[in-house]
Design goal:
Length: 119
């Protein structure tokens, strides 16, 4: 099975780019790929309950629905440093989202056959 690692730094400050990252990740889950979505920078806020619903974009699937799809069939990771800078802890995040650092990101990207996209 092919793997896709999607990393996004975009939050509500760049709604189209953020939604595109989640759309690609959810689409890959739906197609049966092994998907890992990394939330970094301003995207870190989407790891908190209710925050994905704050992003509203015309003609786009709601971000909260896309996040739910990825959580059901893939892995969502919040960057350790990004979480710390925003005072987000493991107790704060949506169940199923893990907090991990760059070593794990590099491991996932370097997995044989993996593809990586950065938004």
């Amino acid at each position: 099975m092919r793997s896709l690692v999607v990393k996004t730094t975009c939050g509500t400050d760049r709604p189209e780019a953020a939604n595109q990252a989640f759309t690609v990740a959810a689409g890959a889950v739906a197609s049966g790929a092994d998907v890992s979505l990394w939330l970094t920078g301003e995207a870190a806020w989407f790891a908190l309950p209710g925050r994905a619903a704050e992003l509203v974009l015309d003609h786009a699937m709601p971000l909260a629905s896309l996040l739910e799809t990825v959580l059901e069939g893939g892995q969502v990771t919040l960057c350790t440093q990004c979480a710390a800078r925003r005072h987000i802890t493991a107790e704060d995040v949506i169940p199923g989202i893990r907090i991990a650092g760059s070593a794990l990101f590099v491991e996932e990207v370097l997995t044989e056959g993996a593809q990586a996209l950065v938004y």
